[in-house]
Structure formats: structure tokens, C-alpha cells
Amino acid sequence: xxxxxxxxxxxxxxxxxxxxxxxxxxxxxxxxxxxxxxxxxxxxxxxxxxxxxxxxxxxxxxxxxxxxxxxxxxxxxxxxxxxxxxxxxxxxxxxxxxxxxxxxxxx
Amino acid sequence: xxxxxxxxxxxxxxxxxxxxxxxxxxxxxxxxxxxxxxxxxxxxxxxxxxxxxxxxxxxxxxxxxxxxxxxxxxxxxxxxxxxxxxxxxxxxxxxxxxxxxxxxxxxxxxxxxxxxxxxxxxxxxxxxxxxxxxxxxxxxxxxxxxxxxxxxxxxxxxxxxxxxxxxxxxxxxxxxxxxxxxxxxxxxxxxxxxxxxxxxxxxxxxxxxxxxxxxxxxxxxxxxxxxxxxxxxxxxxxxxxxxxxxxxxxxxxxxxxxxxxxxxxxxxxxxxxxxxxxxxxxxxxxxxxxxxxxxxxxxxxxxxxxxxxxxxxxxxxxxxxxxxxxxxxxxxxxxxxxxxxxxxxxxxxxxxxxxxxxxxxxxxxxxxxxxxxxxxxxxxxxxxxxxxxxxxxx
Lengths: 107, 394
Prior knowledge:
The complex is a heterodimer.
Chain A: E1 4-5, H1 8-18, H2 30-33, E2 36-42, E3 47-52, H3 62-76, E4 81-86, H4 99-104
Parallel strand pairs in A: 1-2, 3-4
Antiparallel strand pairs in A: 2-3
Chain B: E1 4-6, H1 14-37, H2 49-79, H3 86-108, H4 114-140, H5 146-171, H6 185-213, H7 220-243, H8 251-273, H9 282-307, H10 313-349, H11 368-391
Helix pairs in contact in B: 1-2, 1-3, 1-10, 2-3, 2-4, 2-6, 2-10, 3-4, 4-5, 5-6, 6-7, 6-8, 7-8, 8-9, 9-10, 10-11
Pfam family, one (chain A): FeS_assembly_P
InterPro entries (chain A): Fe-S_Maturation_MIP18, FSCA_dom_sf, MIP18-like
Domain MIP18 family-like (chain A): 18-74
């Protein structure tokens, strides 16, 4: 897990809830799965931008995962504008799964 | 408030996919019911009305409709692009859904007039709409993708199959072909079995099985080799059959087919060996079992060519067809259907409710116990039915 951020404290706070966002097919949370790339907090504008990916661009569960991520961040930061941006470069690969994630999957 | 989510690609609407799944499950029910009430017909010549109705229930209403539904959902995943047209998908469903009952009824009562002709024509139009959608989806996105080429080629073979079927239907009353319709049955059947089902199942399975196992194994060279072997096997078989070549030459397409399946099995085994997800669920297990079941019809064919006296050939053909439609095609479809279906339902019912209170996971809306019972009944029944076919040979 190596998420770029401009505010470590707020990022850690956001992650507490994001650990509950599960990829429904794999059954693993999006943090340990390595789907989160960057998280930027604009304190003045109260704006949070989350840059993330999916395991595949046309993942049938993509809408569910991103909506769940949005709802989770909205709970953590109720008065903030939450923007989720999906990117596919770099593409997700299995090396992005954390050690905890690998253990969960039985490796 | 609608969440701001940039870069999200919409997947195929569940309304496109579900009608195919529902129709296909009714098709399987019809096929198994016809089997139950046509057991006597199994032991006469395979060209009889009830067996033709049964075969087309399994091949079209069950196998093809389910693959159509699943591929409308999965093709975008394979080619990394949106399905080109929902309207064409609806049109495909409408034409097939009306055409198939006409065809099955026409065969069952053996009315070679309007029912068969209407059914065959509508099915051809339905397949044409599907082909246009597959080609436009693949070429609009990543046409160099090997999985897309499997899907395109398989659908071209399917259209060839249904077009020959249409000619055979008209040939019953008006001679269009140089031989009678029974002569072309082997061509019609193998175009469908190898060209459509086997190519499509391997094209989709070679991507989906590693994906479901969370395995990074991929080998495009081997997949291209499998693609070439299957297409050459089919073309050489057609050439030998239509030119009246000696029987021993049929070993060539057979060996190519067996080699392709073994290579596909190797592909899945390698993906399985380096998988990250250690617990393999029941549905993927069924899909893996189906790879072994793929080999059985080829072994039956090799034994038939080399060691079975002519008097027993009709029974072996029945056994061959049975192990294809009730064996590997049904096994792979059951595995992949129950793997993808909970997600389609979950996406429709629960995705907007995620993180807004307790929502079940997709696997929780699927009854694993019932699936296990179904799998046991199915796998337990297969050898007994095959043995029954074997002992019926006098």
C-alpha cells in the first residue's frame, strides 16, 4: 500500500473507513487490493480528490466499488466535496496487493 | 446527489443480459424434459424428429442463448471497451426468442414447411445482429486482442452453421444442395460444436478462468496456437468430409482438436498453479472440470474412427453428441452462469446501497448448498447416462 497524499493525517483517517469498502468479487478491501493511488485534501475549498483504479477497466463491479468508495469518504468527511477519479495508467496488477491482502487470499 | 466519479466506464445494462439467462434456463428445462420423454428415440437413428428437437433445444435455447447473454456482459471486459449497441442486443434476443420455438416445434412434429422456415430465418437474422454487435464492439476498441478474435471467429462460424441449417431446412422441400439434408448434418453439427461452442468457450474461458482465480498467468502465443489448431481442425474436417476423403485422414483434425484442448488445459493449469486466491469456489471448480469433459467427445471420436464396427456407429454418434451437449457445454455453462449471475443481480439490487447499511455480498445471495446438490446430481448422473448409452449398444 503506497498512497500518495498531501495530508497523511487525513488520509489515515479516510483509510479507516475505506478498509470496509470491499471488492465484491474478490472479497478483499480496496486498500489492501491496491486500488487506491492518490488522495488530495484541499482544506480551504473542503474538497477531497481520490484517484483510484479498478482491476480491469470494464470491471462489471466498477460502479458499485466507486459508489461505495464515494459513500465511505462522504461518511468520513460529511461537509466535503468528494471527487473520485478513475485512472487506468498505471494499470492495476497483482503485485499491488498488500501482504495482508495476500495472506487473506490464502497465499 | 449523484456522486462525482470521473473515468467510470458503464458496463452492459442488466436488462440486456438477464432475458438471455432466463430464456436459457427455460431452454435447459425444455431440453431435459424432451430427454426424459424421448429416451426410446435415443436408441434409433439420430436423425429423427424428437432428437432433432432435443439437440436444437440444448444447442440454441440453452447453450447459445446463455453464451449470448454472458458475452454481452463479458465482451466489454475482454476487449476493454463498451458494448457497441444495446439495441442490437435486444433485437438479437427478440429474433432468437421467437425463432427458436418455431424451429423446435417444427422439428418435433417434423413440419418441414412454415414453422421450420420461419424459425431458421429468424435465428439467422438474430445471429447476424449478434455478429454485427460483436464485430463493431471489438473493432471499435482493441481489435488485436486474442480473446476478441476468438469471439469474432466463433460468431462467424455460428452464422455459417445457422446459414447451412437454413439451407438444409429449405433443402427438405426444394433441392438446393447436391446431396440430401442428412448428408450435411455432420458438417452442420461440427461447424456449431467446434467453430461456435469450442472457440467461444476457450476464447472467454482463457481470460475469465485466470481472472476468477486472480492469476497473472497469460500466454498469447499459446492462445494463438490453440486458435490456429481449432480453425485448421475444422477447415480440414470440412475439406475431408465434402471431398469424400478416406477415414484415416480424419485423425488429422482429431489430433489437432485434442492438442488444442490439452493446450487450453495447460493454460488453465498454469493459471491455477500461480493463483493468488487459494480457495477455488464451486463454480470455478465446475468450469475446470468441464475442460476434462471436453476431451471425452474427442476420445469417443478417435475410438469410433479406429475401432468401432460400422453397425455401432449410430449409437456412438449419439454418445458423442450426448457427451458434448450434456457434458462439457452444460458443465462450463453451469459454472460460468452461477459465477456471473450473482454479480449481475447484486449490481442491479444492491450497488447503490453499498456503504449505506448492511448489504449482502454477491456470494451471500447465492445458495451454495443448492449449487453443490445440483453439481453432485449433474456430475453423478453424467457417467451413469453415458454408461447407459454404452450398454444399449448391442
